[in-house]
Amino acid sequence: MKIIVVDNYEELSRTAAEMVAEVVESNPCATLGLATGSTPIGCYEMLAEFCKDKKLSFKNVSAVNLDEYVGLDKKNEQSYAYFMRRELFDRVDIDKNNTHIPNGKASNLLDECSRYSKLLNDTDRDVQILGLGSNGHIGFNEPNTPFDSLTHVVDLAESTIRDNSRLFYDGEQVPRQAITMGIAEIMQAKRVIMLASGLNKAQAVKRMTQGEVSNDCPASILQRHPDCTVIVDKDAASLLKK
Ligand code: GLP
């Protein structure tokens, strides 16, 4: 695990965007594993800038996302499908037919999980971007999710519902369930870029990078990934032992 500590959020976003751009430059048909949440927004903004300036093209790139809320239609502004269009897909030249996200409105959620698992299994992911839950979750794999889990439906932890309520107009509307890529599938990506910013992530960053590998902190499994880079700003790194 390589840890890069940067001064601020802008630098974090630039560092991550440059790494993703390198992946796409070396393989224009790359598959990117993408994350939602507020942390990767700056990275997506810079990727959109690179594309606008014709420095980068997503024309032949595919994308697979980590997760989606159960019960939200892709047209719902709070859905992760909508988020991805707003923050990235509508701003770059990607073919939207090549972008994938679990369907939170599927009539049979178990079938949807199997379909998504198969898609992941059939795709080589060049890089997976991750954010970090304040409780150490990755995707929506909450504490105590088995490390060998595949795509599944999850009951969200109260702390996650609370953390994510800031993104909803009314805290009551935060869905209680989500479909998430499993930890085993996250680990299948050739490369992982984990982003964490702010003091509220400091404890989880310490646990993820310097604690024991244990499923009470799902992100700690990244210590065992052969090519994982953690990019953190000073605040998120503030509890790390030198
Ligand atoms: C959500 C997402 C995660 C994300 C986390 C952190 O729970 N499912 O993939 O990493 O939030 O979000 P933020 O970046 O807003 O702190």
Q: Can you give keywords for this protein?
A:
binds 2-amino-2-deoxy-6-O-phosphono-alpha-D-glucopyranose; seven-stranded parallel β-sheet; Rossmann fold; alpha/beta; 7 helices
Q: How is this structure best described in words?
A:
This protein has seven helices and ten strands. With 242 residues, the chain is an alpha/beta fold. It has one domain (2-192, 205-232): Rossmann fold. The protein has a seven-stranded parallel sheet, sandwiched between helices. It has a three-stranded antiparallel sheet with strand order 4-8-7, with helices on one face. Helix 1 (9-26) packs across helix 2. The longest helix is centred in the first third of the chain and has 18 residues, at 9-26. 2-amino-2-deoxy-6-O-phosphono-alpha-D-glucopyranose (GLP) binds next to helix 5. The site of 2-amino-2-deoxy-6-O-phosphono-alpha-D-glucopyranose (GLP) has 14 residues, from helix 5.
